[in-house]
């Protein structure tokens, strides 16, 4: 008898589908409400037969796959609370996502999103939205993006924002705002109205000043986090930052700083010289088109 290993005659796509189908079949049999399909080399929802009819599911993890699109039918899953689509090849999202009545956490980080659908901010109960590491900027945000009253954490790091719209002030329940690794040239004064903020990540941008209103936030507290390194701060802020975050926040409350800030803004943000150059992001994974 030959000792040669048995070689499957199924095509690769059939193998992928059979593995995913097995997970789904088991979930249907046991009424498992959490579907884990991490790193299964899935390219399309067609490899997930019947998933969109599993109305009892509350959590789906599809990270580290090769999905390029999400079908509008995802909204059929009206009990879904957590959807993780991170580390895929997504270039767009369906508007229907924002109509899901119980969706609390949506992770679309590390994809290839260049835009968001109109009306994307209509999520009724969304608490955490992660859009970090994509190709988004302030011009592609839909008009209702900042109307998500329930949002507690918004991650927009590693995108291409130069400005943050002043409408951010509408996110009254926001506690975490991630803006690291963008091209931000300034922050809106309205950010000072986000009085529940406990974490603000603005490191590695092109910021040279902070709006004085940031001092309204309870950032020096023991449970608060303000990350602001790797920015071309004006000398006065840079010197205070060397001593500590609390010294920065005390300094920007002073009349001297208000004068400096107003002069800086009146000069178009160029009092420290020319605008800092953008970081070359052409080699980002989110720019790949394989």
Automatic annotation (TrEMBL):
Keywords: Acetylation, Leucine-rich repeat, Repeat
SMART domains listed in its UniProt record: LRR_TYP
Domain Disease resistance R13L4/SHOC-2-like LRR residue range list: 121-217
Any single GO BP term: signal transduction
Cellular component terms (Gene Ontology): cytoplasm
Region (Disordered): 270-290
PROSITE patterns: LRR
Keyword match Glycoprotein: no
Family matches, as InterPro entries: Leu-rich_rpt (IPR001611), Leu-rich_rpt_typical-subtyp (IPR003591), LRR_dom_sf (IPR032675), LRR_domain-containing (IPR050216), LRR_R13L4/SHOC2-like (IPR055414)
Pfam families according to UniProt: LRR_14, LRR_8
Function field: Potentially plays a role in the Ras signal transduction pathway. Capable of suppressing v-Ras transformation in vitro.
Protein name per UniProt: Ras suppressor protein 1
Native source organism of the sequence: Anopheles merus (Mosquito)
């Amino acid at each position: 008898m030959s000792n040669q290993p048995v070689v499957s005659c199924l095509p690769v796509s059939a193998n992928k589908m059979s593995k995913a189908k097995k997970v789904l079949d088991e979930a249907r049999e046991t009424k498992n409400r959490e579907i884990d399909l991490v790193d299964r080399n899935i390219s399309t929802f067609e490899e997930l037969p019947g998933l969109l009819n599993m109305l009892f599911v509350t959590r789906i993890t599809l990270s580290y796959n090769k999905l390029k699109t999400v079908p509008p039918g995802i909204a059929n899953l009206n009990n879904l609370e957590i959807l993780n689509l991170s580390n895929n090849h997504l270039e767009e999202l369906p508007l229907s996502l924002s109509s899901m009545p119980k969706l609390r956490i949506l992770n679309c980080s590390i994809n290839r999103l260049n835009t968001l659908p109109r009306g994307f901010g209509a999520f009724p109960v969304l608490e955490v939205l992660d859009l970090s590491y994509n190709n988004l900027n302030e011009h592609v945000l839909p008009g209702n993006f900042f109307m998500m009253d329930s949002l507690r954490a918004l991650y927009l790091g590693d995108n291409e924002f130069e400005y943050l719209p002043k409408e951010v002030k509408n996110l009254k329940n926001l506690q975490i705002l991630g803006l690291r690794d963008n091209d931000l040239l300034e922050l809106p004064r309205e950010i000072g109205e986000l009085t529940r903020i406990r974490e603000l990540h603005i490191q590695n941008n092109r910021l040279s000043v902070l709006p004085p209103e940031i001092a309204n936030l309870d950032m020096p507290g023991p449970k608060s986090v303000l990350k602001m390194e790797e920015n071309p701060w004006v000398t006065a802020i840079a010197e205070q930052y060397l001593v500590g975050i609390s010294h920065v926040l005390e300094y920007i409350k002073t009349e001297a700083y208000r004068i400096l800030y107003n002069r800086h803004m009146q000069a178009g943000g160029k009092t420290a010289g020319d605008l800092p150059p953008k970081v070359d992001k052409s080699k980002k994974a989110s720019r790949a088109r394989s």
